[in-house]
Amino acid sequence: MDIIANYGTTLVLVAALFGFLMAWGIGANDVANAMGTSVGTKSLTIRQAIIIAMIFEFTGAYLAGGEVTATIRNGIIDSNAFADTPDLLVLGMIASLLAAGAWLILASYFGWPVSTTHSIIGAIVGFAVVSIGPEAVQWSKFGGIVGSWVITPAISGVIAYFMFISVQKLIFNTDDPLNNAKRYVPFYMFLTALVICLVTIKKGLTHVGLHLSDGEGILLSIAISIAVAFAGWIYIRGQKYNPQDDSKMHFANVEKVFGILMVITACAMAFAHGSNDVANAIGPLSAVASIVASGGEISSQAAIAWWILPLGGIGIVIGLATMGEKVMATVGTGITHLTPSRGFAAQLATAATVVIASGTGLPISTTQTLVGAVMGVGLARGIAALNLGVLRNIVVSWIITLPAGAILAIAIFYVLQACFS
Predict the structure, then answer these.
(1) Picking from 26-35, 351-360, 376-385, 409-418, which range would have the lowest pLDDT averaged per residue?
(2) Phi and psi angles of residue 77, each rounded to the nearest 5 degrees, phi first
């Protein structure tokens, strides 16, 4: 308690600095995942991807980042265990932000797409165990986290596999791909719009006061999707193509349509990502600010101070702009060769898996979901289409993320204790 009373303002400033660092790491790693397929397929240049992600990530983080956030990230630790020692919780959250942010920046430097959620969870568990004891951690949550390493990439991989196979059979492997594109692309547009609407309603708009029931959300999504499919049908019918063009030109024209769909999906995913994963940075930060402001009282929820959401949004944008290229390259070109139709299948499978996870409560990592989807697209062309060396490095980085966050947080926690006691 004495630490909070004597160093309250300093603690909040340090937490803000490390929260900004954590948001920087999220931008450098997770956001790059969202835009990597668009860059890898050359549907967008790196500069265009950064600009688009800046707009949609910041908009999602600032407008839909939540008026209220849980002070204990994901309920992974029991806040009641810190009721008598709130100063330990404050120092632990600060240590967690620095540990997770440092790990994300290191992973981004090497081009490893890792989970920001798992980074912060590992860090919080690490400090909780050494400050209070193992009883402070809700270990039952860990089954879902470990399971998500396998389940979510598998779901998105299967969806992407069959999505890509359907595009190949219905359009590309036919005698007249252009006419078949005119026939079937509106259906893919309907699917894309439906998934985008469900992602946005489920993962974004609930935070701005738009609380639709599941039925209302589905009906609204279907109505918008039908309108989009109809508009797409009119657009593709109106395109003038030379029937004398060779098959390569026909394929290129069809790929352009999928490129547009993929960019639209990436924008929606960036908005949904900004509205949700910014909580990995602002959750612990808002906990510190709340505990200091209340003089040491710990509440299960706390209103976010006005300056915290913009801080998180700006950190994400700067992280993407300065360090996002390597992870983009890993996802977009390192795992397998992507074309717009393949990237579209991966992106749509990722968004669909997010919708499934939201509806079922399945713990999910967007990073692992997208990597699984890209793998699924690669497998549709045979195991030789995958770069197994890159995949091995990615899986290893996933496994060591939790212990890396925990070990760093423990070391930083002890340093902070020494500095403030």
Answers:
(1) 351-360
(2) -125, 160
Both tokens of residue 17? 């600095």
Q: Which residues pair with 303 in a beta bridge?
A: 68
Q: Give the integer Cα–Cα distance in Å for 369 and 295.
A: 41
End-to-end Cα spacing for the chain: 11
Smallest CA-to-CA distance from 356 within 203, 209, 208, 228 is with 203
Strands (E), 49-192: 68-70
Q: How many other CB atoms sit within 10 Å of the CB of residue 242?
A: 10
Question: Which pTM does this prediction carry?
Answer: 0.84
Neighbouring residues of 83: CB distance < 8 A, sequence distance ≥ 6: 298
Two structure tokens written together for 194: 């439906």
Provide the total of helices (H) and of strands (E) in the chain, helices listed first. 15, 2
Q: Which residue has the tokens 């029991």?
A: 78
Sign of the alpha-carbon torsion through 285, 283, 86, 100: negative
Question: What would the pLDDT profile of 31-87 be if each residue is shown by its tens digit?
Answer: 777 788 888 888 888 888 888 888 888 877 776 555 434 444 456 787 778 878 888
* pLDDT tens by residue, 121-174: 899 999 999 988 888 888 877 777 777 778 889 999 999 999 999 999 998 888
- Secondary element (H or E) of residue 303: strand 301-303
For 272, 280, 363, 403, the CA distances from 390, given in Å and listed in that order, are 27, 26, 25, 21
Taking the C-alpha atoms of residue 255 and residue 234, their distance in angstroms, rounded to an integer, is 18
Residue 77 in 3-state DSSP?
Answer: strand
Number of neighbouring beta carbons within 10 Å of residue 234: 10
pLDDT of residue 303: 64
Asked if residues 25 and 103 have their Cβ atoms less than 8 Å apart, the reply is: yes
Tell me what percent of the chain is helix, strand and coil, each rounded to the nearest 5.
Answer: 80, 0, 15
